[in-house]
Amino acid sequence: MELAVLKQSGEDTGRKVTLSDEIFAIEPNDHAIYLDVKQYLANQRQGTHKAKERNEIAGSTKKIKKQKGTGGARAGSIKSPLFRGGGRIFGPRPRNYGFKLNRKLKVLARKSALSYKVQENGLTVVEGVQFAAPKTKDYIQFLNGLSLADKKTLLVVADLDKNVFLSSRNLPKARVISVNDVNTYELLHADNVVMCEASVGKLETLLAK
Fold this sequence. Notes:
Blueprint: E1 2-6, E2 12-18, H1 21-24, H2 30-44, H3 103-119, E3 123-126, H4 136-145, E4 153-157, H5 162-168, E5 174-178, H6 184-189, E6 192-196, H7 197-207
Parallel strand pairs: 1-3, 3-6, 4-5, 4-6
Antiparallel strand pairs: 1-2
GO molecular function: rRNA binding; structural constituent of ribosome
Subunit structure: Part of the 50S ribosomal subunit.
Protein name: Large ribosomal subunit protein uL4
């Protein structure tokens, strides 16, 4: 499969890059995508939630009323979960939501996401992206040249460039990552994936292992 290589300004260079069919043209596996995205989102959770149970509540341990003769249910502590201000029953505790996935499954999920992007014409290859200084205006001009200004874009570069990253940081729909940080969630979340020509070969090497 071949894809046209564009300049940073959006003009056609007249060259084409060959994409590996084993990575960009496979039959997508939806279940692999589901598991990889689920793991990614689970890893984003801090898991620092905490509610106090009855043994952690500050309060008197004195029996609040006599056992019998009141006409109501018996009660032994003001810290009971049945009373206002009491401890919570089986409240949330700090925990890690992450879980393990096999590497082959994660690779399959990323290949599937890339294949979906190619099928949807959501993959663009550019010759390279370089800015002399970090300016949001320059990044907007770059997106305008590709006709992607109003879309959620993911720019994948071979090596993260500080000026390119800082230029995109103020744009809510723009995201810049290096090849080593490519993941299924980011690929599917973007409307269009823009890849530098150098990052294509590097990504194919990573996913072919």
